[in-house]
Amino acid sequence: MLKPTTVLRRFIEEAENTYGPKLRYSSVALVPEGEISNPFTSFCTDETNQSRMAIVLLGERTFADEALAEYQLAHEAIHCLAGSMPTTCLEEGLATHFSLHNSVINGDRAKRLENVLDQERTAYLALIRQLLCKWPNAIRDLRHGGARPFGEIKIAELVEYGVSQELAEILCKSTDEWRTLRLPGS
Ligand SMILES: [Zn+2]
Hints:
mainly alpha, three-stranded mixed sheet, 3 strands, 53% helix, binds zinc ion
C-alpha cells in the first residue's frame, strides 16, 4: 500500500492539472484523528518559519484501509488545492466530483460510491455537474489559471461566464448557509 501522504500528493498533482495550481503553502500534514468519518482540511501558519501549511485530519482506520484512503484523500485533495473558509457549495461539489472521477477511482467503483453518498453530497454533486457538463474548464478559467481560492469566485463572474444567476448564487453559497436553507430548524 502506498503511504497516504503519497496518495494525497498524487491526487493534488492530478487536480492541479485539471483545475489549476494549488494555493501557496510549504507542506501538507496528515494527522490521524480517532474515529472521524469525515476528514477535514484546514490551513495554518507556522509562526517560527513563517510558512503556511495544509493540515488534513483523517480517521485512524483510514490509514490501514487503502480503498477508503484513496476515496477520502481524492476528496481532500480538492480542499488542499484551493480550499476556503467557509467552504462553498462549488468547492464541496468539486471535491465530491473529484473523489468519484480521477485516475484511480472511476467506472463501477465510482458508481458504487456515488450510490451511498449522503443527501447533502448528492446535492452538491448535482450542482457542480450542471457547471462542468457544459463548461468542463470552468474552474480553471475562473481561477484565471492561477492559485486562486475557490471561495473568491464571485456570482457575477460565473454569470459573466454564462452560468445562470440561480446556479451561480447557489454555487457561491457557503455549505453552512445551504444547510440552513435546506434543513430549516435543524
Ligand atoms: Zn469536503
